[in-house]
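Entry
Fold in token form

___
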Amino acid sequence: AVLYDMGVIVNSLLMFSTQILFFGFGWLFFMRQLFKNYEVRNAMVQLVFSVMFALSCTLFELIIFEIVGIMDSSLRYFQWQMNLYLILTLLIFLVPLYTSHQLVLTIRMFQSRRWLSLAIWLLFVYLFWRLGDPFPMLSPRHGIFSIEQAISRVGVVGVTVMAVLSGFGAVNAPYTYMAYFMRDVKDSDIQTLERRLMQTMDMIISKKKRIVIMEKQSLKYSGSSPGVSRNSSGMGRVWGMFSGIVSNGGESILINALHLIVT
């Protein structure tokens, strides 16, 4: 029993020390990266962000401990439940209430700002709870105000927000960073391309003229070859027939090649 108690104390100190490290890293990340260019600093926002960052990293740490087999299972379950309750408390109660309070501070026409911020928060809680009506979240095993009901609704909201942000990023990122991949087109570039186009058009016209001339020569040769074959001797006829076949075949191949170049 003494060894078990010592193990619980050591594991609790381990979790507490890692949470402090995660909290400090979240605090520095908030100061050095997220709001390094902003002069207005809000200590409450920084504190809530650091606590949420530490609790989220602790959940990831508990998953790793579960895989590796570090710590006792009952202590891991207790830490898991405690972190989930703290995260849900921040997400459902503290963050929306503080956000509504900051929103009401920008409206100067109302005198009772605390009651108005409380009313906005109650409206959020009502809408958040009504969000689970279209989904089969109620179960006979769990009560209405159980942790499963809150996690299921947070999951629906989180997946929806991530889908909206992903769609927005997929459209906005190419539109924003397209200018880095575009090259400025100068008047000299346009004139160079126009000259290349004119040279290409002249080459196509000359090739077409050559095709027409070769086709006329081929027709003329094919029409005059029978007459030559009648007036020549036997060997001349054979030689003329052979040379006509060779020349006609070569011209037809050349004409086809020119057609391919033009098209």
In short: Residues 226-242 have pLDDT under 50 and may be disordered. Residues 96 and 121 are 6 Å apart (CA to CA). The helical segments are 2-34, 43-68, 73-105, 113-130, 147-177, 187-231, 234-262.
